[in-house]
Design goal:
Low-confidence stretches: none
Strand content: 25-35%
Helix content: 10-25%
Largest sheet: 3 strands, antiparallel
Structural class: alpha+beta
Number of helices: 1
Radius of gyration: 12 Å
Mean pLDDT: 83
Shape: globular
Strand order of the largest sheet: 2-1-3
Distance between the termini: 25 Å
Length: about 70
């Protein structure tokens, strides 16, 4: 399972989402550009503003807080 973590400067928060089945034909499948699918998901589904976030995809869901 892969995760996507968003550092949202506009909201002042960190968000984490799981690799969702909603994203068929993308996000870890070979027949689509994952970055375009992820950015669509972040803006259209989750409401993030791409100019105010940094994001990454990773396998470990742990967020280190210290």
């Amino acid at each position: 399972m892969n995760y996507i973590t968003i550092l949202d400067f506009e909201a002042g928060r960190v968000f984490q989402y799981e690799n969702l089945a909603l994203l068929e034909n993308g996000w870890n499948k070979e027949d689509a550009d994952d970055s375009e699918i992820i950015e669509w998901y972040l803006t259209e589904v989750k409401g993030h503003n791409l100019s105010n976030i940094n994001w990454m995809v990773h396998e470990n869901p742990q967020i280190i807080t210290n």
